[in-house]
């Protein structure tokens, strides 16, 4: 379809406005679920959706939906969207390209005179990042029925505040059971996102078509020692929780490096030391461990290896440990029809596209539980992401939005 033109200048202005809703100094962005800056950012997105002629609603956990009804509102919608929350001191493009880009795609289709046969729905998912409640994709998991109301109400944030209290003080008081959408509620789901890696850049391809998303697992391990005075407790008498944690951190690295799977990764990204004084032996250390692979058996082998290492280290050092699996999700695969729609859309724009696996997880991973999915990637400069110098050029973003618009046109016309 000719006449689809992306307003890159407007989109960049909106990216700049959204980036300013942050608890970190520019160019870093920190935007954590239901904090004042995140609530202001939500209000901004809802206004943009309304200005684009979308009917806006929110669910009980804060997922925001902007709907364009089309000719037959009773049909299941062709959906798109992403997230706007941002981990501490990260970048401005992760997630936001897929939310602002989806709104611009709708505006571009309207400007071109397109009328969807089936509805198009833009979704801004709540809490894609695990920052506040320790579990990623909280909103899309709930929507897909992978996080029950009981599991949600059991969640506590990093300050020990229950999820229900946090969401209600943010104004979300709805019934949690109503947030779950049935399989078939959506016809399809396509997410536009930055690659957060360097494969597109290395291939000189401006568009990536995602054939699969790796399976993430998160473990929390709490190590309990006896603590004590750093000067008076002699070495043979110690049960040092931080020294034990250090051994476990290296065991996590060994599990990732030692895997024969090229996509195996294992990371300790969070380490809390208690009491955290230079002259006090750590009595408690909390580690959160991120383990992924596109190959589920390989991912599970690493989890088992790490849990065994934790048990061995604890026994050898007379440390007590608590192990909790916060999530252990399966991979998802791109749907043939959705992949074909993206391929055709990319070809229509004359863009070189490569097909690749997403090693980052996304809300698409959970949307795959209820409808056919895939993703459109745009390049990340030097592969940087989850850091302030994350960057994707306006031209690459506009091209990704153009491919998204044409993909939605195809899916909403079928
Ligand atoms: O961690 C991830 O893969 C995503 O960016 N939350
Ligand atoms: Mn992220
Ligand atoms: Mn993201």
What do you see in this structure?
The protein starts with 7 loop residues before the first helix and ends with a helix. The strands form 3 sheets. Strands 2, 3, 4, 6, 7, 8, 13, 14 and 15 form a 9-stranded mixed β-sheet that branches. It is an alpha/beta fold. Helix 1 packs antiparallel against helix 3 (96-111) and helix 8 packs antiparallel against helix 9 (296-317). The chain has helices spanning 8-19, 36-51, 96-111, 138-143, 149-154, 163-169, 199-203, 241-257, 296-317, 336-349, 364-367, 394-413; strands at residues 29-31, 55-58, 64-68, 77-83, 86-90, 120-125, 186-194, 207-213, 215-224, 265-274, 284-293, 320-328, 332-333, 353-358, 373-378. The chain has 12 helices and 15 strands. It is globular. One manganese (II) ion is lined by residues 94, 129, 386.
Which key phrases capture this entry?
Alpha-Beta Plaits; 24% strand; Aminopeptidase; globular; 414 residues; binds (2S)-amino(hydroxy)ethanoic acid; 12 helices
The succession of helices and strands, N to C, reads HEHEEEEHEHHHEHEEHEEHEEHEHEH
The small molecules bound here are: (2S)-amino(hydroxy)ethanoic acid, manganese (II) ion
Task: Choose one word for the global shape.
Answer: globular
The rounded Rg comes to 22 Å
The name of the CATH architecture of the largest domain is 3-Layer(aba) Sandwich
Residue share in helices? 25-40%
The DSSP helix count reads 12
Summed up, what is this model?
This protein has helices at residues 8-19, 36-51, 96-111, 138-143, 149-154, 163-169, 199-203, 241-257, 296-317, 336-349, 364-367, 394-413; strands at 29-31, 55-58, 64-68, 77-83, 86-90, 120-125, 186-194, 207-213, 215-224, 265-274, 284-293, 320-328, 332-333, 353-358, 373-378. By secondary structure, the protein is of the alpha/beta class.
């Amino acid at each position: 379809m000719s006449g689809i033109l992306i307003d890159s200048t407007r989109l960049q202005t909106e990216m700049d406005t959204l980036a300013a809703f942050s608890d970190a100094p520019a160019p870093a962005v920190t935007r954590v679920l239901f904090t004042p800056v995140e609530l202001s950012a939500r209000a901004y997105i809802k206004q943009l959706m309304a200005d684009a002629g979308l009917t806006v609603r929110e669910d009980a956990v804060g997922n925001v939906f902007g709907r364009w009804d089309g000719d037959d509102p009773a049909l299941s919608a062709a959906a798109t969207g992403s997230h706007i929350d941002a981990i501490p001191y990260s970048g401005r493009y992760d997630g936001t390209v897929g939310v602002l880009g989806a709104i611009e795609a709708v505006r571009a289709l309207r400007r071109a005179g397109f009328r969807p046969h089936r509805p198009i729905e833009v979704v801004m998912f709540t809490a894609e990042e695990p920052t506040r409640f320790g579990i990623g994709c909280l909103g899309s998991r709930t929507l897909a029925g992978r996080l029950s109301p009981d599991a949600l109400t059991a969640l506590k944030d990093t300050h020990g505040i229950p999820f229900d209290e946090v969401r209600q003080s943010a104004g979300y008081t709805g019934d949690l059971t109503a947030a779950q959408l049935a399989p078939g509620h959506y016809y399809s789901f396509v997410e536009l996102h930055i690659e957060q890696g360097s494969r597109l850049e290395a291939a000189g391809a401006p568009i990536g078509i995602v054939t699969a998303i790796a399976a993430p697992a998160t473990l929390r391990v709490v190590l309990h020692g006896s603590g004590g005075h750093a000067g008076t407790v002699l070495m043979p008498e110690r049960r040092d929780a931080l020294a034990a944690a250090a051994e476990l951190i290296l065991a996590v690295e060994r599990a990732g490096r030692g895997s024969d799977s090229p996509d195996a990764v294992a990371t300790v990204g969070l380490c809390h030391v208690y009491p955290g004084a230079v002259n006090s032996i750590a009595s408690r250390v909390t580690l959160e461990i991120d383990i992924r692979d596109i190959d589920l058996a390989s991912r599970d082998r690493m989890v088992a290896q790490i849990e065994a290492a934790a048990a061995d280290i604890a026994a050898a050092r007379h440390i007590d440990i608590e192990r909790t699996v916060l999530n252990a999700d399966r991979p998802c695969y791109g749907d043939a029809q959705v992949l074909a729609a993206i391929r055709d859309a990319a070809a229509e724009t004359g863009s070189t596209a490569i097909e690749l696996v997403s090693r980052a997880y996304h809300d698409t991973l959970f949307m795959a539980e209820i409808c056919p999915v895939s993703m459109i990637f745009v390049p990340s400069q030097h592969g940087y992401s989850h850091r302030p110098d994350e960057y994707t050029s306006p031209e690459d973003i506009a091209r990704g939005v153009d491919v998204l618009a044409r993909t939605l046109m195809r899916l909403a016309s079928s």
